[in-house]
Amino acid sequence: MRARKRKHGAERIEACAEVLVTDKAAVHENAQLPFDDVRPLCLEIGCGKGKFSCEMAVAHPEANFYAMEKVQDVMVCAVEKAMAHEGGPRGNLRFIIGDAKELTEWFAPKTFDCIFLNFSDPWPKKGYYKRRLTYREFLEIYKTLLKDDGILRLKTDNVGLFDFSLEEFEAAGMEVVKISRDLHASEYNEGNIMTEYETNFSSQGMPINFAEVKVK
Ligand SMILES: C[S@@+](CC[C@H](N)C(=O)[O-])C[C@H]1O[C@@H](n2cnc3c(N)ncnc32)[C@H](O)[C@@H]1O
Predict the structure, then answer these.
(1) What pLDDT, on a 0 to 100 scale, did the predictor assign at position 89?
(2) Ligand 1 atom at minimal distance to the Cα of residue 46
(3) Residues classed as catalytic
(4) CA 73 → CA 1, 101, 182, distances in Å?
(5) Residues 149-208: pLDDT tens digits?
(6) What is the number of structural domains in the chain?
(7) What is the tally of helices (H) and strands (E) in the chain?
(8) CA triple 197-201-204, angle to 5 deg
(9) Is residue 56 part of a domain?
(10) In the structure, which protein residues have their CB atom closer than 6 angstroms to any atom of ligand 1?
(11) Ligand 1 binding pocket mutation candidate from 1, 103, 154, 210 (most atoms within 8 A of CB)
């Protein structure tokens, strides 16, 4: 996603400090700290404008959600969406501006019950595959952060990225427990919350690829 420069981005982010987490050391020490109660923990990586995590936090008050995004100008929209939520910002949703490469600086091993990768950038050009968020080096990070029975969920419109990811899961010793090449027509669609990209792609009639994997 090429980010449009947002006017007064820094000030707008500052105004949403309530839903942003910036203290790496404190979060690493206790990932439950920013939330109003201790609950199972989920993480969305590359949350974009935040629709998915905002709606997941409402639909699942029994869980706590972190949403990470590396581009500040994109995160502006996500945190403003969270702040504007009916009833005020939720006690079970927090945002981090950062790169997935740094996740182990933010979180201790075995922190998460679930990690979501939604419509990650496909990096289709030859030679760029190591940037894909399902490249094996990223999977090793997620394996460290997932609890023993934790799961990773991937959704993408991009068949090339999906096929690549299935190979990388295998190489990283991760087992595919659910898979669909057309999520919206499948049994796994119940309770599915659509992301911004998903809404856009599915309105054009494109099928959504979905996989749920766990560490073998
Ligand atoms: C194609 S957009 C999808 C946004 C959203 N998940 C959706 O489905 O609507 C991918 C997002 O992932 C973010 N991203 C890409 N690589 C990242 C990384 N290494 N760490 C954190 N965010 C990343 C991009 O900045 C972009 O906002």
Answers:
(1) 87
(2) 12
(3) 121
(4) 11, 19, 32
(5) 999 999 999 999 999 999 999 999 999 999 999 999 999 999 999 999 999 999 999 999
(6) 1
(7) 8, 7
(8) 150
(9) yes
(10) 1, 45-48, 68-71, 74, 99-101, 118-121, 133, 195-198
(11) 1
Q: What is the CATH number of the domain that holds 186?
A: 3.40.50.150
Residue-level pLDDT at 1: 47
What's the pTM value of the predicted model, to 2 decimals?
A: 0.96
How far does the centroid of ligand 1 lie from the alpha carbon of residue 185, in Å?
25
Establish if 167 belongs to a structural domain: yes
96 in a structural domain: yes
CA of 120 from ligand 1 middle (Å) equals: 5
3-state secondary structure labels for all residues of 98-154: CCHHHHHHHCCCCCEEEEEEECCCCCCCCCCHHHCCCCHHHHHHHHHHEEEEEEEEE
Q: What is the pLDDT of residue 180?
A: 98
Residue nearest to atom 12 of ligand 1 (CA): 46
Element containing residue 26 per DSSP (H, E): helix 24-29
pLDDT-derived band at 4, boundaries 50, 70, 90: low
If you measure from the C-alpha of residue 105 to the centroid of ligand 1, how many angstroms do you get, rounded to a whole number?
19
What is the per-residue pLDDT across 30-84, written as a single tens digit (0 to 9) for each?
A: 999 999 999 999 999 999 999 999 999 999 999 999 999 999 999 999 999 999 9
- At position 209, the amino acid (one-letter code) is N
Amino acid found at 189: N
Domain-embedded: residue 11? no
